Amino acid sequence: MAKSQQTYSKNEKEKQKQKKREEKQKKREARKAQSKESGGGIPFAYVDQYGNLTDTPPEPTEKEEIDASTIELGIPKKEESEEDQDPTRKGRVAFFDTSKGFGFIMDSDTDEKHFVHVSGLIDQINENDKVTFLLEKGLKGMNAVQVKLQE
Question: In what residue span(s) does the CSD domain sit (predicted)?
């Protein structure tokens, strides 16, 4: 006599899958019945002039006409300012190690620290000296270059 290919655990798993399918079907039918009773459909949400969600449509008299040509898509063009025209910055040397050849300069306008290397120096600098410098993009951020003592 040939033995059945299905084991007890396979039969149990099949029964559980069938039971889940039946429960899912019952829930689906219950939702359909409930939506028909309540007059169903998706409720609408409107946005009023202040940006709040409401369930009532806005008044047509309160609508504001907007000219589509005045809407800017994307990032607005950067206007040139005095800061862009003169890239020279002023600051104070916060730390400088002459033996290792690097340090940091504190920008007086933005209070940001910028890395400075001995190769970017024009004049010899020490800690707490007031200096002028230019910024250049480095591997790990902005670096101070063309550093010279302030007159």
Answer: 88-149
